[in-house]
Amino acid sequence: MFVSRISRIGVGMFKQLGRGLCTSLCRTGFLQTPYIQYWQPQFKTQLESKMFLGALFQKHHLFSTPASGSDIVDGSEGKETISVTFVDKDGEEKNLNVPIGMSMLEAAHENDIELEGACEASLACSTCHVIVMDVEYYNKLEDPTDEENDMLDLAFGLTQTSRLGCQVIAKPELDGIRLAIPAATRNFAVDGYVPKPH
Ligand code: FES
């Protein structure tokens, strides 16, 4: 009697395991059994099992769909990124995949692009001046603050679509943005220049 009880428990556990695996595979689209049929009191256990296996599948990309070009590049695996192209003074282009939330100045520095950033993003210079090459993208940026405008007024080669690279933060709408780096910068912070307050 004791033995038969043990074997019943064993069979029950085996069925549980089978259902957990099935629901995980359903998530990947390999099995189409309606998930709702497993919504039993043991749902919580199955959900945990599903989440665990799902995480494993995702981590190892065993069943996930291929990532788009803007998802994973240059060691940014796991982070959402956008495509940004820097164009230097000689017209040379460099395309980067920049994680959402990162400034263009940081992205440039991480990828050996010559964009100065003398004040380290404290809005006390204009050496991170970039020109947004497409007005459509320029219009997607947050409006510059008064402090940024003050610094931009001092920038070399100011244009209608100029911004400070340290103030342009990667966000999904900016995917595909192109930024030109001016031929020269003025480093007033280092030269000791203090802009007049307005
Ligand atoms: Fe100085 Fe951007 S690095 S304002």
UniProtKB/TrEMBL annotation:
CDD domains linked to this entry:
fer2 (cd00207)
Domain 2Fe-2S ferredoxin-type intervals = 82-185
Domain of life per record: Eukaryota
InterPro entries in UniProt: 2Fe-2S_ferredoxin-like_sf, 2Fe-2S_ferredoxin-type, Adrenodoxin-like, Adrenodoxin_Fe-S_BS, Beta-grasp_dom_sf
Does the keyword field hold Secreted? no
- UniProt KW keywords: 2Fe-2S, Iron, Iron-sulfur, Metal-binding
Q: Which cofactor does it need?
A: [2Fe-2S] cluster
Ribosomal protein: present as a keyword of the record? no
Its name, as the record gives it, is 2Fe-2S ferredoxin-type domain-containing protein
What organism is the protein native to?
Hevea brasiliensis
The organism that produces this protein has a lineage beginning with: Eukaryota, Viridiplantae, Streptophyta, Embryophyta, Tracheophyta
